[in-house]
Design goal:
The chain has 158 residues and is an alpha+beta fold. The chain has one domain. Helices cover 25% and strands 18% of the residues. The chain is built from five helices and four strands, in the order βαβααββαα. The chain has a four-stranded mixed β-sheet, covered by helices on one side. The longest helix is centred in the middle third of the chain and has 14 residues. The radius of gyration is 19 Å and the shape is globular.
Length: 158
């Protein structure tokens, strides 16, 4: 049986947090950025102003439903193991450069986040677009990181 063969009355599903966002394409990257990051900034569309589409949204998103488990945790690695076990900064720079070289950037969307005084660039695959709903729920929407005039040529902090 195919999913589309099931009658609508038999489906017991509830929509969650419906959002809409402005799509900003063709942003210009800052000259200060490395070449690989310029490719990402100029090649992927940006989610600009984001808003809830439902005046009384359900805030039960995937992040709320997750159950914590000791197998899925972030742990601090400072001081663990031999000094040579930890990758250096160059390792991560090479991985990000390889991503920028190989990725089909039309399958990704960028979102600017203001975290304290820092402007952060988040790159999300479109198959994980529901994370934009979590972002809207968890972070304040600040005009400085949503408008084309402010994002064009921005030197990202992280």
């Amino acid at each position: 049986m195919h999913a589309f063969d099931i009658e609508d009355r038999l489906i017991n599903a509830q929509g969650t947090f419906a959002i809409g966002c402005e799509v900003l394409e063709g942003l210009r990257a800052s000259e200060q950025l490395p070449g690989w990051l310029k490719r990402v900034v100029e090649g992927a569309p940006f989610a600009g102003a984001t808003a809830a589409l439902d005046p009384k949204p359900s805030y039960v998103t995937g992040a709320v439903k997750r159950v914590s488990d000791y197998r899925y945790q972030f742990v601090r690695r400072d001081g663990e193991g031999a000094e040579g076990d930890k990758p250096d900064l160059g390792f991560f720079q090479r991985r990000l450069a390889e991503f920028a070289r190989l990725a089909d950037l039309s399958s990704y969307v960028c979102k600017a986040e203001q975290v304290g005084p820092f402007k952060m660039l988040v790159v999300i695959h479109k198959s994980c677009f529901q994370l934009i709903a979590d972002e809207l729920r968890l972070f304040p929407q600040i005009e400085q990181v949503q408008r084309r005039e402010r994002l064009d040529g921005l030197a990202w902090d992280g």
